[in-house]
Recover the amino acids of this structure.
């Protein structure tokens, strides 16, 4: 079967970290040798060239692995991945990106939301058997992403939890960077990184985020990916709520930030969000329900805080406008 361009790009991203180093370097060099045909169709963007210059090398990852083994704090990180009719090759790439992590104290919880795809159902146990740190669970019926995520939370043993969509890819130093920050910021409760998108021609549309800004967060869910939260805080916040599906993370983050302001930003691209027809990574115009659910999450947050306001969607920017009601002077 012919591999899609996205599949090839995903394999290229992972190749240097899952193959012997000498062979990986050879493949990496061959990928960058421009042919006339490739130069016309998939010439690297300025961003992709920049990213390749700044991502961790195989040697740096080896050093990170050794360094992390000596960390004073080595918390278990639970990576939760709800699965539903995922193309097998894309799920494999997501799983391989976790297995390639320089930081080794993790567990991956794959929660199948009653998939129908026979190929996926046949492969799920085999994928889970690749590493003892992978846990496979299934829902009795199709219940949606919030229910699957909550099932993962119930099974999680980690002090920290983070979420990986079933067809996305982590950078190999992603979990290391989280734990590295905790060595100097042990009080952290929520940590987030920068991200980009994985398209047919490679990496694109980087989102370089600001440090924590509660006002900006009311306008746009810029926490997104990769975000890690202390598990006990997620539990205290009440986990995910199905009525906010498609904006369930936005809703959860609002309830978490109502409990803490110890929020830290890692200014590195550690998460590749795949563009696909079913993903809001292409355009939220195709998923208006996501904007509606996000608006409800903002309104619910303001209501809990006792802040009367009118929330509307800017359909040009897909951001939200919050206009607070002013009380009359007495």
């Amino acid at each position: 079967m012919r591999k899609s361009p996205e599949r090839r790009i995903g394999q290229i991203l992972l190749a240097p970290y899952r193959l012997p180093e000498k062979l990986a370097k050879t493949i990496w060099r061959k990928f960058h040798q421009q042919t006339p045909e490739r130069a016309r169709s998939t010439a690297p963007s300025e961003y992709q060239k920049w990213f390749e210059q700044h991502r961790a090398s195989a040697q740096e990852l080896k050093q990170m692995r050794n360094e992390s083994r000596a960390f004073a704090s080595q918390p278990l990180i639970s990576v939760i991945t709800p699965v539903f009719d995922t193309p097998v090759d894309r799920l494999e790439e997501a799983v391989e990106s976790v297995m390639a992590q320089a930081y080794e104290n993790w567990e991956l919880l794959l929660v199948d939301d009653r998939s129908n795809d026979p190929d996926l159902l046949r492969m799920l146990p085999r994928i889970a058997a690749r590493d003892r740190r992978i846990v496979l669970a299934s829902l009795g019926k199709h219940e949606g992403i919030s229910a699957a995520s909550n099932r993962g939370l119930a099974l999680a043993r980690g002090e920290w939890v983070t979420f990986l969509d079933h067809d996305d890819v982590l950078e190999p130093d992603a979990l290391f960077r989280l734990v590295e920050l905790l060595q100097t910021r042990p009080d952290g409760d929520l940590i987030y990184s920068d991200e980009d998108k994985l398209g047919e021609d490679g990496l694109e549309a980087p989102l370089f985020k600001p440090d924590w800004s509660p006002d900006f967060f009311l306008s746009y869910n810029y926490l997104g990916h990769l975000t890690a939260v202390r598990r006990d805080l997620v539990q205290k916040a009440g986990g995910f709520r199905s009525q906010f599906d498609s904006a369930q993370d936005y809703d959860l983050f609002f309830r978490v930030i109502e409990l803490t302001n110890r929020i830290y930003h890692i200014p590195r691209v550690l998460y590749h969000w795949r563009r696909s027809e079913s993903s809001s990574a292409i355009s939220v115009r195709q998923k208006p329900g996501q904007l509606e659910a996000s608006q409800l999450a903002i309104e619910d947050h303001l209501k809990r805080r006792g802040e009367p306001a009118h929330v509307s969607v800017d359909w040009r920017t897909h951001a939200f406008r919050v206009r607070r009601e002013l009380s009359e002077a007495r």
Remarks:
- Residues 288-304 form the longest helix (17 residues).
- The chain has 13 helices and eleven strands.
- The longest strand covers residues 263-274.
